[in-house]
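Following up on my earlier thread - several people asked me to post the actual chain instead of describing it. Fair enough. Here it is, all 121 residues.
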Amino acid sequence: ATLYLWPAALSTGAFASAELGAGQWGSLLALGCAGSGIGVIGYMWLIGEVGPIRAAVVTYLIPPIGVFLGWLVLGEPIGWNLLGGLACVVAGVGLVQGLPVRGRVRRPPSVVPAGAAAPLD
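Reply from S.P.:
Thanks for posting it. Predicted structure:
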């Protein structure tokens, strides 16, 4: 996105007074390549490995991690209602990921190419 929008950003003149030294370029590369680039590549790999539905469940883990870091770093209080919500989120993620349900493991449906016979279980 940065490369795509770069010409438009430069043509507006909004960055005419901005100073872009080595530190700024290094930050741009670190955030763009390391932060976003590696994250997107990892997410695309995850989609290929487990499928889009199971990979999307990762987003449900962001709020509990944020709450935990708020407690750890900022000393924010954690009440029983927050722990109950966390338990619901973790249980939902576990169900989607295929944890044992009544003694069996749910498996995601296999992808069958068009025209091929579905495998028998």
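The beta strands are 100-101, 104-105. That should answer part of your original question.
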